[in-house]
Design goal:
This protein is an alpha+beta fold and about 700 residues long. The protein has 33 helices and 11 strands. The strands form 4 sheets. A 5-stranded mixed β-sheet has the order 7-5-4-10-11. Strands 1-6 form a two-stranded antiparallel ribbon. The longest helix is centred in the middle third of the chain and has 20 residues. The protein is globular, with a radius of gyration of 28 Å. The two termini are about 30 Å apart.
């Protein structure tokens, strides 16, 4: 235990004392930060990483951990302007991630390139390429790439850098001509280097993205497909093969089936999250909904495995919680209501991000698993006519009051839906959710909405059921009978939707002279899916990383281990010692709530970067009668535990702030690491109770 005032005394001594290590020559090792005002919190508050003025500012909101080699992902080869083997290796991995739209890992790899070789222009080119959605950062990195060009730079490097520089010349301009011009520039590069596979692949990537995300017309998808086939013939495992799925899924998805591109056996068992997600989307677009659900299970499962292994192999999983939401939506389309709702409930039970109130440009609440789960639960209930169940959502789900307008708006929308009010402009509702109310009310407007659904979507149980019931209601018995065939009855075999009990289906079954239950037995694929969905649901709820153990000294000469807390939760706070005024503010914020955390059965352990001698000083101050802090405070002056918990910027070789909530089994259930300390202990107390329950 130690006093807050004594920490303030130590802070003043470290920052102003005549023997402060900051005034001495810095040692040439990773401990050079010691004794200096190394906390970045004050600067981070005023800096703007979206419009950076320096490399440090540009990397402020960037990943802080060095990349790791990704199993199942072969690095690509490219003529990089660096003699460093390390720089070339990470550039190859960054390029592979770029093709998979795995921007988080791509940025880590490209940052490792410039860390290994600060003069590598292509490293900054890669950083510009992955920041299309953050144009201020992208433009800065493009300028940096141009600034690294030298007279001896090869013509290849120069043309690649100049192309991305032109793309970002005016990042605020109309994106359509910018995308078109960039594709044209990349086409020129591919023509100039006909033997460069990566030149072709990057050109293909831009063509596909222009059509898939940019809404631009691709004049000849067939020509692009032939280019993709040429690339994969040269490099069979090239990640650009996913571009073929994106190329056709919105226009001619059945072409993908005809070419055998929807076969999951084409992917290796260790395929990454993005590859399973792209396959699932393409399978759904082709009407193969059970296969799509199985591929989404593989994608979610891969994400869970990455989360569980975070401290051993930290990977930034792309769209992890979004993938769970997509899986729940696919199950709902298959009529598997309870499975879909159980996944929605599991999403709501996930920890909320440390910052739930966004800025003008970001909204961390709406992208959280919690918000996705609330939307999914409401959407599934509306799709299957479960308004009464939706009205109980606040007691059925582990909800909590979240600060900010986003949650207030979302809850208002859900409550309006539960009350049966018109859906209005609720953007997150599916076409089936809008159809459900129309069909139940016998509205003729349902016909127009049904006609807008692709035939492939109507192969799923839910939209097809709504279509059949609409025909019955409109008196079109012939059309209803045609749709009420054995393929639909087989799809109904694994469904548990309330729509199964509709009088319209009973009538059609009688007309077909079906005796007994009209749904056919579930298919083997449906039974297999049931088992795998239950597996990922359980893992999603429990698959959190195990906290690294530690044994650290305090200021009295005693040692405390993490194992001593086994069997009860614990909150672990990493702070940057007495020299960090922001850390003192954090301790001051947690001080009055320390007893309440203890009452909730959650003791607090604070781990300082200060040496034991500084903690001994605070003990002496405590003995003078000052009020002690009700925390266990330990010393990790060598930063070993900081590194074990990844509370460390591996690029800049300095510690950062971190807060970790561990459950009784030692799994990390909630955590945040940042340049700024976490400062909302009351919110965290409520969140801890919610997610631990």
């Amino acid at each position: 235990m130690c006093s807050l005032n004594s920490w303030l005394v130590v802070a003043g001594f470290v920052l102003t004392g005549p023997l402060a290590p900051a005034q001495q020559a810095a040692p040439p090792d990773n401990n050079a930060w010691k004794g200096r005002l190394y906390c970045m919190a004050a600067w981070a508050r005023s800096a703007n990483p979206e419009e950076p003025r320096s490399v440090q500012e540009a990397f402020l909101g960037a990943p802080s951990l060095l990349p790791r080699e990704i199993e199942g992902l072969e690095p690509l080869t490219f003529p990089v302007d660096s003699a460093s083997d390390e720089a070339r290796r990470w550039f190859g991995q960054g390029l592979a991630c770029l093709h998979l739209l795995w921007n988080e890992e791509a940025e880590r790899a490209f940052r490792a390139v410039v860390a290994a070789d600060p003069d590598c222009a292509m490293g900054y080119w890669g950083l510009a390429m992955v920041n299309v959605d953050r144009p201020g950062r992208g433009a800065y990195f493009a300028r940096m790439a141009a600034g690294k060009l030298r007279p001896q730079s090869s013509a290849t490097v120069r043309t690649w850098v100049e192309a991305v520089q032109r793309y970002y010349a005016d990042p605020a301009a109309d994106p359509v001509p910018r995308h078109q011009r960039f594709a044209s520039d990349l086409e020129d590069l591919a023509i100039a280097e006909p033997n460069n596979v990566e030149a072709k692949a990057i050109f293909l990537r831009q063509l596909v993205l222009n059509a898939y995300r940019g809404g631009l017309e691709l004049r000849s998808p067939w020509a692009a497909d032939r280019l993709a086939a040429e690339i994969t013939a040269a490099v069979p495992g090239h990640p650009a093969r996913s571009h073929r799925l994106l190329l056709w899924m919105n226009s001619k998805p059945n072409y993908l089936a005809d070419q055998g591109l929807l076969d999951p056996g084409r992917l290796p068992p260790e395929a990454v999250v993005s590859q399973w997600r792209f396959l699932a989307e393409a399978q759904g677009a082709a009407g193969r909904w059970e296969a799509s659900a199985e591929s989404m299970v593989r994608s979610v499962d891969a994400g869970i495995r990455h989360r569980k292994g975070w401290f051993d192999q930290p990977l930034l999983v792309p769209g992890f919680d979004e993938n769970v939401e997509v899986l729940a939506g696919t199950l709902s389309l298959l009529g598997r209501v309870e499975e879909a709702l159980s996944l929605a409930r599991a999403m709501v039970a996930q920890p909320l991000p440390s910052t739930v109130v966004g800025t003008v440009d970001t909204d961390p609440f709406n992208s959280s698993a919690y918000a996705r789960g609330l939307r999914s639960y409401a959407r599934i209930c509306i799709e299957h006519g479960l308004q009464e169940r939706l009205s109980r959502y606040a007691t059925d789900l582990p909800v909590q009051q979240v600060p900010g307008d986003s949650e207030t708006v979302l809850r208002g929308e859900i409550e309006a839906l539960a009350a049966g009010k018109p859906a209005g402009d609720i953007a997150w509702l599916s076409p089936e959710a809008r159809l459900a109310g129309m069909v139940a009310a016998g509205e003729s407007a349902a016909a127009e909405l049904l006609a807008s659904l692709p035939d492939e979507r109507c192969r799923a149980f839910l939209p097809r059921a709504l279509k059949i019931l609409h025909h019955v209601e409109a008196g079109r018995t012939k059309e209803a009978m045609q749709a009420f065939d054995n393929s639909f009855r087989a799809a109904a075999g694994a469904a548990d939707s309330p729509w199964l009990r509709s009088d319209g289906f009973v009538k059609l079954a009688q007309l077909r002279r079906v005796t007994g239950d009209w749904p056919l037995a579930p298919t083997p694929a449906a039974n297999r899916l049931a088992k795998s969905v239950e597996g990922v649901r359980k893992d999603y709820l429990s698959g959190f990383p195990g906290a690294p153990g530690f044994v650290l000294p305090d200021g009295t000469g005693s040692e405390t281990s993490l194992a001593a807390f086994r069997g009860r939760p614990v909150l672990v706070i990493f702070f940057l010692g007495a020299g960090c005024l922001q850390c003192v503010e954090q301790l001051h914020a947690f001080l009055p709530l320390g007893p309440r955390f203890e009452e909730a059965g959650i003791p607090i352990v604070a781990i300082s970067s200060d040496p034991v001698e500084v903690l001994e000083f605070t003990i002496r101050e405590e003995r003078r009668g000052q009020k002690p802090i009700p925390f266990t405070i330990l010393s990790d002056s060598e930063l070993e535990v900081f590194r074990d918990y990844l509370v460390y910027n591996e690029f800049e070789k300095r510690p950062v702030h971190g807060t970790f909530l561990l459950d009784a089994e030692g799994h990390v259930r909630w955590w945040t690491t940042d340049n700024q300390p976490f400062m909302d202990p009351l919110w965290l107390l409520r969140e801890s109770s919610r997610i631990l329950d």
